[in-house]
């Protein structure tokens, strides 16, 4: 399999965590979202993913799967062990609710496209853009804090789909200097995940295309 990814993309980060948790070998193909107008906009990549987003997972058969939720569901169905979703349907729904809250309600509002639109098309100054990001991430994480449990990870002692979504979102929150002190459960998950080999392997800083922070 080949994963077209960008080191700092939170949706790519999710998929990298899931692949590592499932011990699946994959070739990483970096797609730089900012260089030369964005490599995701090149015709060759648009032929692979018409939306021009990352990640894209290319299976050994040549089939391309786009959108991180679809990729994660594919991995869970095609490689069910270790499971990232619980067996009980109610518990599965609880995990999926946290994943959807992060993937559908928080992440899209600070993605590269909406932020570029705020800055360029609407001409909003950087303090306002920062306020927008902090508001939506903070509001969403407040709900997540109330929805997850008190175990090591979001829903128990082992990592699952909710953690796959939450940890990259926390990386983004820290990138944007969003205060996290009011979320003790979330910070507990972050601490535990930081010691887990799959989460360390998937971390943006450990990717082949990682870039040093700007001075």
Structure description:
It comes from Bosea minatitlanensis. This is Maleylacetoacetate isomerase. Belongs to the GST superfamily. Zeta family. Residues 1-83 form the GST N-terminal domain. Keywords: Isomerase. The chain is an alpha+beta fold and 215 residues long. It has two domains: 2-82, Glutaredoxin; 89-200, Up-down Bundle (Glutathione S-transferase Yfyf (Class Pi), Chain A, domain 2), CATH 1.20.1050.10. It has nine helices and four strands. The chain has helices at 10-21, 43-48, 68-78, 89-106, 112-121, 126-147, 161-175, 184-194, 197-202; strands spanning 2-5, 27-30, 56-58, 64-66. The protein has a four-stranded mixed β-sheet, with helices on one face. Helix 1 (10-21) links the parallel strand 1 (2-5) and strand 2. Helix 4 packs antiparallel against helix 6 (126-147). The longest helix is centred in the middle third of the chain and has 22 residues, at 126-147. It is globular and about 45 Å long. The mean pLDDT is 95.
Mean pLDDT reading: 95
Given helix and strand content, the structural type is alpha+beta
- How many domain modules? 2
Q: What is CATH's topology name of the largest domain?
A: Glutathione S-transferase Yfyf (Class Pi), Chain A, domain 2
How many helices in DSSP terms?
A: 9
**Beta strands, count:** 4
Largest sheet: 4 strands, mixed
Layout of helices and strands:
Blueprint: E1 2-5, H1 10-21, E2 27-30, H2 43-48, E3 56-58, E4 64-66, H3 68-78, H4 89-106, H5 112-121, H6 126-147, H7 161-175, H8 184-194, H9 197-202
Parallel strand pairs: 1-2
Antiparallel strand pairs: 1-3, 3-4
Helix pairs in contact: 1-3, 1-7, 4-6, 4-7, 7-8
EC number: 5.2.1.2
GO molecular function, one term: maleylacetoacetate isomerase activity
Organism: Bosea minatitlanensis
